[in-house]
């Protein structure tokens, strides 16, 4: 089949947008498309800003409380007025600030990992759109062949009808067959336009790029041994990294909760002035957490235990999902290979053409004979698309 070798996706938003680019960006495969989106995607840029804001927020709240300044004026008889000035600074035990700072660093690391999760989701969506677009265009080639054959059949039947060699019912069948074929082409073109617009939305301000439709993952792109491949991607999986970071953060939180049981300190300056004397000095205070810190350590320990369990659960779920995806992709690629081989051996198109040339069937019958052949090609295209989408779900873990 004569598939398109390349898909030129026009993403020109306006003539001014096109002029703003010094040089058109040309992309030839999915990896380059994903690199383009990684650099220009508005969604990713927004996610980066959100991550920066989250990291900045993580470092707030680790300063000492505001100092307290108090002024008292007491008046009395016989010009015995009194003026008091108190300046007090309260602070937590020093180790609390140390652990809170470490926890802030851990929360910032968690924000970075959450960004990686969001980035992978966007790139996975883009890769899926590329695959669906490529196979939609391949399907368009098949449907165009069907429409072309149906048009020839309709013209041949019309000629036979004009010569009185066939009846109006056969002509109506040929015309309806042609209309259905054209309708399928139009529906597929609508899907192509929709996929293109979705991909354009992810790409941002790129004027246009070229997608190599035939450069798609195949069965050879999948790892030979799943277990060894999973060991490589496990340490790169952001969900697992996040679960590990949550364990570290919960451990730091437990240490901080223990440190907060140490008494808070308060130090200050006091001054008392009257008409007869002036007194100045230093004030010291201590706050013992007898009530407000109750059950905080127990809660922190529970959170730490939950984080450990979540890591175990996440590891099992992710491995199970990837294993199922891997097995299904292998099975679909194998099924597609068998169907492709069976179609080649059956040679339904060649046999129908021979029968047409020998006068055994007319043009309309020839097109009818090809209906099953084209239906099998479309089914094969759909199976390959599903297998390729699954392969991309696996390969995205190493991007």
CATH superfamily label: Outer membrane efflux proteins (OEP)
Q: Whole-number radius of gyration?
A: 36 Å
**DSSP helix count?**
10
Strand content: 5-15%
Estimate nothing, just give the exact number of structural domains. Answer: 1
Give the ordered list of helices and strands: EHHHEEHHEHHEEHHH
CATH architecture: Up-down Bundle
Detail the poorly predicted runs.
1-25
Question: Could you explain how this protein is built, in words?
Answer:
The chain is built from 10 helices and 6 strands. The protein is 66% helix and 12% strand. With 399 residues, it is an alpha+beta fold. The chain has a single domain, classed as Outer membrane efflux proteins (OEP) (Up-down Bundle), CATH 1.20.1600. The strands form 2 sheets. The chain has a 4-stranded antiparallel beta sheet, with no helix packed on it. Strands 1-4 form a two-stranded antiparallel sheet.
Layout: helices, strands, pairs:
Blueprint: E1 6-10, H1 15-19, H2 30-40, H3 42-58, E2 68-74, E3 82-91, H4 94-162, H5 168-203, E4 208-212, H6 226-234, H7 238-259, E5 264-274, E6 278-287, H8 296-346, H9 348-357, H10 363-395
Antiparallel strand pairs: 1-4, 2-3, 3-5, 5-6
Helix pairs in contact: 2-4, 3-4, 4-5, 4-7, 4-10, 7-8, 8-10, 9-10
